[in-house]
Amino acid sequence: MRKPIIAGNWKMNKTPEEAKALVTELKPLVKDANCDVVVCVPAVNFAAVKEAAKGSKIKLGAENVHWAKSGAFTGELSADMLKACGVEYVIIGHSERRQYFGETDKTVNQRVLAAVEAGLKVIMCVGENKEEREAGYTDALVEYQTLIGLNGLTKEQVAKIIIAYEPVWAIGTGLTATDEQANETIGVIRAAVARKYGKGTANKVRIQYGGSMNPKNVKGLMAQPEIDGGLIGGASLKAPDFSQVVNYDK
Ligand code: PEP
């Protein structure tokens, strides 16, 4: 059995003061959660979130990481820097990074390798855009993104990776993949992992759905056998909404 994992992606939102207030409000609301609970936040909020989340189930995540250990990479953060700030999880290859910041499958892979080596838990994002879905490329594209992203990891390392299947057309748009669409594509991703790394490994990999997941649609999505959790953008910015997603089974 795979333990579900619900992670918030705050994107470029919240000051440290606002972060502290949100986590303080969230803490009691998620205390009985049956899933892993993570908030991935801007680096300026690491200290505030760490402090506010003390003694709770809420784990700290980052939204990106660089592949180099250190050096002339203005504005970037290394895996060791994240670790030193108490970060446990990191999102890699989010579609907004791919779309606006030139992230490629190759750099996603470099970041994944560096994060795993440093002991961070990786949430690696894959997903098709509207044109790719309409052209019938969804399966081929997510298989390719997944296998290139994981390239160079051992079976044991792959088993611990969290993959977020996020159809780009569903992110921040209010459009959601149907429960069946999400389940089917996640099944395609798991089958690709199984072909390369074996069924045993693929059955351990947790694969989240992301794309306008919210308190209203979470139950249906989480009832699907292949869906092991969610990566939540908009609905992670308010404690009542995020806690309802986290407590989807109550
Ligand atoms: C995301 O940013 O990963 C995301 C899924 O956003 P939203 O929930 O707002 O669609």
From TrEMBL:
Its EC number is 5.3.1.1. It comes from the Bacteria. Keywords: Isomerase. It is an enzyme of class 5 (isomerase). This is Triose-phosphate isomerase. It comes from Aristaeella hokkaidonensis.
